[in-house]
Amino acid sequence: MIILLAVVLALNSADSGTIGAVAAPLEADLGISHAQLGLFATVSSGVGAVAAPVAGVLADRTTRVRLLVITIAVWSASMVVGGLAPNYLWLLLSRITLGAAVAAAGPIVASLIGDFFAPNERAKIYGWVLTGELVGAGLALLVGGDVAAWLTWRAPFLGLAAISLGLAAALWRLMPEPRRGGAGRLPPGRLRHHDAAAEADQAKATILEEGVLPDPDRVLRRDPDKMTFWQAARYVLGIRTNRTLIIATAVGYFFFAGLRTFALLFALDRYGLPQALVSLVIIPIGLGAVFGTLFGGRFTDRLVRRRRTNARVTVPAYAYSAAALVFLPGLVLANIWLSVVFFTLGACFLASANAPLGAARLDIVPSALWGRAESVRTVLQLAAEAAGPIAFGFVADEFGGMSGRGAGLRDAFLVMLVPLLVNGLWLLRARRSYRTDVATAAAARPAAEPVTERA
């Protein structure tokens, strides 16, 4: 289950990473600017933000595995259209359908993780699954750029389309539909050998043992299955911790989207490296991000088991601030090998925030609303991802006109470190509300079991 869910996110990220990997030949072939390149990601993410509410409702009320298979098939068809695009406008239009299909992945994957895996292991599981995002983006940058150099920038898109069809078939054959509310949870022994305590929700148990009371005005007492999307959205946005987590996640993905789109161009322009060598430089940075994702989840779960119940918000808060501080010397230094050390550490800190944030969102939202809550977050995340590349590209074009192209991208990254640093400080405010919101979610009325069996 972990591998299949990770591959879903890997292909999602690989498509966006491919845009960055083939940026140089794509810009040369179609005669486009940095800002126009960033618009590809903006259109895809913007359309995804519009489609996400529908995906969230379907994730809570329909068979999730079937929905995921259908969206991946649509996703594959969109990549074929993009790979065959004869001009800039055609490729831009192909991103519309792709964005709508990608929007379903976040709510479905989050809901499946909540129902497949025990609460005490959610951050760790999220770490493994989110590793797919990084592996997909990394392979796209490494392989996509080389394939584009050997063949054409169209080849990586067509290759991803074929892989996506294989994933859709594997999901249909291998992934069962779990029962809602954690009733279809996999036994912990399937993951590793330990005592039955791993099945318990340690954070919630500790919070309730310490006498933390739910907010009586926020306890969900109505049937969540009868709530419209807008009623559910108002409810989940009324959760104070959730608002903070959503904003923090969006800012993190804003920076990551710009990094993913322009990292290769920055290395090519800043250090004057050939394409093949730049691809090798990406490897340690990618490994740092993978390590951070896995370590962040496992470390946070360990702290929770030691009754550090706020760990799922404090760990990512410190990680975001540390990432901004570590990226700074890497961008300023002109020596590529010293810069790589700092970029690797920065990627490690940046990536380590995502897994505990994902687990924290499941902690504070009633299980019957997981899909819709994640779709609300997905809307804001995709909006941030849409704004990231075009904002980075615009700032780079403005600074590049004064100090050269490579310096323009460097200055754009330096400017964007400021919101990343502030983001970590902003997230610390969730410490005051997280425990109350966990207790409030635990007191919610459960939903009736939806029809989840596959025909």
Automatic annotation (TrEMBL):
Keyword terms, alphabetized: Cell membrane, Membrane, Transmembrane, Transmembrane helix
Main location: membrane
Chain segments annotated as transmembrane: 39-58, 65-90, 96-118, 125-151, 157-175, 244-267, 273-296, 317-334, 408-428
Organism, as annotated: Asanoa iriomotensis
Pfam families with a match to the protein in the record: MFS_1
Subcellular locations according to the entry: Cell membrane
Domain Major facilitator superfamily (MFS) profile: 1-435
Topological category with respect to the lipid bilayer: Multi-pass membrane protein
Record's protein name: MFS transporter
